[in-house]
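HOLO CASE FILE
Compound: glutamine
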Amino acid sequence: MSNGAAPSVADAIRAAADRLSPTSDTARLDAELLMAHALGVSRSRMLITLMREEEPPGFAPLVTRRAACEPVAHILGAQEFCGLDFAVTPDTLIPRGDSETIVEAALEVAPSASRVLDMGTGSGALLLAYLHENPGAAGVGTDASPAALRVAQTNAERLGLAERAQFHEANWLCEGWASDLGQFDLVLCNPPYVEDDAELDPDVREYEPASALFSGPEGLDDYRAIIPQLGKLLIPGGLAVLEIGAEQAPAVAAIAHESGFETKLRLDLAERPRALILR
Ligand code: GLN
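Model generated. Tokens follow.
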């Protein structure tokens, strides 16, 4: 840094990464993403051409927010998922890399489903990523939260999928509307599955909706509510792909077997159980 001048983008990123490293496992990446946002350019363009420019004034407040554990996705208002750019607000879970396993599994076991239901759709990530890859499909996303449904609708429009995606306010029982809409080839669901007393990082605990995370003492309450509904929602031979916590495979499989389903497990990139396929 030269005398009196603002630090360069490169120096400011380095300093921010140091500041964020006690509270973030991805401090350098966070700093780069926040800087690209402050500059109003993509991260790759910043890294290639702008590292010697002066730090823009908008950067420091973003780093201060991140240092208080606010998720980068909330600060940017966006999160990439399955190669698509999703709008994100505090009203939904931030789409996670782990959940891409659900979309991959669905595309593998039901590549040409024509009617898809995403229960507890949140940002719409699972449904919209599936619809994007399967142009022959149309789908419905449900959520108990009207604020979440507005985020999902925004995402459907922004990804050019609004003509194939509808959103409905509903609880797990899908009371009222399920019989009107008929049955589905494929049900996707990433329910809340965290144990009530689990210790979560402050990024998650303080900034993401508890209603999308916690599910009773064993994290299984929502599976117990959802799985018995699947029979009436699926066509004969239809499939459901549920996200599960890494330790939950045997318990969720047992709930599924009680409802008469056969199950198959799929691992995430870290080779942990992540998706349970019900047939
Ligand atoms: N995998 C998420 C977490 O650990 C939990 C997601 C969920 O409950 N559906 O933060």
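CASE NOTES: The chain has two domains: 9-68, 89-278. The mean pLDDT is 95.
CLOSED: yes
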